[in-house]
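Hey, sorry to bother you again with one of my protein questions. I've been puzzling over a protein and I'd love to understand its fold better. Take your time with it, there's no hurry, and the full record follows here:
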Amino acid sequence: MTSSSPISGPNMPHRSRLTLFVWVLSLLFVTSVFVGLGVWQVKRLHWKLDLIARVDARVHAEPQEAPGPSAWASVNANDDEYRHVRKTGTLLNDAETQVYAVTNLGPGFWVLTPLRSPDGTITLINRGFVPTDKRKPSTRPEGEVSTPVTITGLLRIDEPKGTLLRSNVPSDERWYSRDVAAIASARGLTDVAPYFIDADATPNPGGLPVGGLTQIVFPNSHLVYAITWFGMAIMSLGMTAYLIFLERKRAGK
C-alpha cells in the first residue's frame, strides 16, 4: 500500500495564476528594494571616501588664519571641519572651562580656554587633555600662559547638544560637550567665534595640557552593507525563479 505526501503528491493542486502572480510580484518588489538599498550604500561609500580624502588634505595642509568675523556665518562642517588653522592672541586663563573627556591617556578633561585676538574677538581653544587630578589650574600653573601666543590646530565645529547620555550643566560646572555658545554665555564672553580649535601637539609649559589628541575617525562599513543588500537581492531573485520553476513543474504533471 502506498500513499502520497500532501505536499508533493501527484493530486496536489497547483497554485492559481493569480496566486503565482502575487507571489512573484512581491518577491520582485522585495528584490528591487534590496537593490535600491545596495545602490544607496555604494553612493554612501563614494561619499565617505571623498570625505576622508578631503579631511586628510585639510589636516595635512599648511595652517591658514582661522576664519574671522566676516566669515563666521558661512563656517560649516562640510567645508571647514578639521581645517588646519592658526590664531594669535592672549589666553584668558581665568575663563577656562574643563570638559569631561576619555582619551588614549585615560579619563580626564579637555581644557577650553578663550583666546582674545588683537581685534577683540574671542576663539575657544581646546588646549588639550589633563588627567582628573590636574583639573584645577592651580595644579598646573606653568601651563597658564599669560603672554601672547599663536595657536596652531584643527578647526572644530560647535557641539551644542552634549553627548547621547549626558547634558551639560553649566550651573554646576559639569561639561560633557564643547558647546561654544553655552560656554561663552556661562563665562560672559561676547564676539565669540562659532567654532573652536583643537590645539596641536606643540608642548605647553610644564607639559600640560597635552594637545594633538584629536581623533579623526570615519566609520566606513558601506561596502559590507552594499554586499549584504545585493546578496539578499540575489537570494530573493533566486527564490522568484525557483517558485516559477516549481509551479511550472507541478502544472505539467
About this structure: Residues 17-44+220-251 form one domain. The helical segments are 17-59, 77-80, 180-187, 222-251.
